[in-house]
Amino acid sequence: MTTPAPWTFLTNHTHVLLCLQRHPGDTLREVATRVGITERAVQRIVRDLEDAGVLTRERQGRRNTYRLQPSTPLRHPLEAHHTVGELLDLLR
Length: 92
Hints:
By secondary structure, the protein is an alpha+beta fold.
């Protein structure tokens, strides 16, 4: 019997977003550990999410805190009539 290929319904971008929603003060290293990807991959994803206006970064002392922008529409045309906040509410 063959082992099925590992895949999930949600992307790593969604996983990072969920982690930052639940733990906004986490370091990117902590997010990487939670998601199971490299810290460098998390840095790229956070940059993507910032560039898309999905989250903002606030410096607090030596750490960053991330704030989500729940009214941001989802990017794919099939979901563009929904927001990031609706997605996160669904996954809560």
